[in-house]
User: Fold this.
Amino acid sequence: MATVIIPTPLRKFTNNTARLQVSAGTVHDTVQELTLNFPDLKKHLLDEGGNIRTYVNIFVGNDDIRDLQREHTAVKEDTVISIVPAIAGGSPSPTPFTKEELARYNRHIIIPGFGMEAQQKLKAAKVLVIGSGGLGSPVLLYLAAAGIGTIGIVDFDVVDDSNLQRQVLFGVNEIGKPKVEAARRRLESLNPYINIRIYNTHLNSQNALDIIRDYDVIADGTDNFPTRYLVNDASVLLGKPNVYASIFQFEGQVSVFNYRDAEGNPGPNYRDLYPTPPPPGLVPSCAEGGVLGVLPGIIGSLQALEVIKVITGVGETLSGRFYIFDALNFESKTFNIKRRIVNPLNGNNPTITGLIDYEQFCGMRAVEESPLKEITAKELYAMQVNGEKFQLIDVREPHEYDIVNIGAELIPLATVAANADRIDTDKKVVVHCKMGGRSAKAIHELEEKFGFKNLYNLKGGILAYIDEVQPELTKY
Amino acid sequence: MIIIEPHIGQLLTEDAVNTFPDECCGFLFGREETDGTRIIIDILVVDNSKEGDKTRRFEISPADYMVAEQHALDHDWALLGVYHSHPNHPAIPSEHDRKAAQPYFSYLIVSVLNNEIITMRSWLLNEEQQFEEEKILDYQFS
Assistant:
């Protein structure tokens, strides 16, 4: 006779007998004999179709019958058969999906290696997107569509017509409205199963930790260095992964900073890559330097991809790597980056333990050391109307001058020093550019090198002049 | 009713905290009184053999199960149940727990929140294949 070992949970159906003797034959015969003698065992061993239940394992000796001939496995006189219940379970799913959500996310759920598990992680995740412009637009659209459960959006700006060349989140109806509110409306109409939280404010050292603290993953789509360092430092201080992207003219960059691997070791962050910011004015923003509209679409989509990978753990993230895309030559490169022991945030001797003044850190405050004399567009207009004697200089590029100008003498920024002799020294000189940044630099250069004392910067540049004085002119 | 000796409670706590954020799992051994009260005298810590996300699922391999049955025989104890942890979730059985649950076994669940034990609760299947709570009696007061 062969022996069957009954597991403890089923012994109450076998009169508390642990070992039963059965005739030789096959496993199928053994199960039939058992269920005939102990009918209560049947529903625990067999399903409605009479097959062995998937959560019941039958071992012959030390081998699972699934690895032998299944039910047809031979049972000999000396065979020991063990019935082994599968022991499994788990904590509840974060929040079960509704029928509508399952239908919506079907194309995710059916991907092998992604599935329901990854989709549930997306639903449980909270992602903060900083900046809802060129990069933020595709990031927000794809993250909302993918079913990220909670999305926070930080932006202080309002939608401008010149944004629509690349910020595909917005339409003409939203011009003049706060970006975060326009974004929320668009995303809610795309996916009603998620939560959107908005922060219509400048992210700064006072509010950054409180805003970022609530989120699992940060997506940095800002366009300036002070905010970039602020987001990086706050993410590292709070232990959050920071999915970074930036764009300029024809080039885009992507990386994943401060990502903890399976062992809990953090990856490199922005300060490992760029210990100090570039001098102010060296790298212009998109508003000053321009950007090809489709580029943020490409780079922002890559950024959204990395956010999804960080959340789900599917695939290899860009942590420890830095990706660069050159749209002009259609070339991309991926560099390896490493943590540095001198990183002031999490190197061997951390010196930054809280948020600092990032404007000052990036040299923006230095401008205030020799105060810049400014005039507003309205004041300039008054001077023009009153026939006051003054010189007006435009330091933009010739192609910008061709789009729109207000009758100034054109001396591009790079050439002001060489053309200093064309600038009056005995009467008021008003210098302007598009928004006021380049003209401020021109004034500083002229003051430092030639000692000019009569230079005035047009506040807000030609754009402010168009808004306040001549709205019929072309804005760009 | 189930009684967990203090040093057993300590072992369960350590396993749950050390395994966090994954789910820990193992077996409970002891004896059953005539009134149905179960006294847990020993545990066997086993690996969570679930492939994939172990933070929300656990699985015990058949080989470990057979070791547990043998362990009970060797010490003349009864194999009384299974314990596992719910990281960042309450100690209430989930649908996954119910579907895979065995009759007779006590299912002891340890709730761990950010590395700290919050509660321990024990559950038993009834005839309708639904879980009913089994009161845990504090050893000192028994």
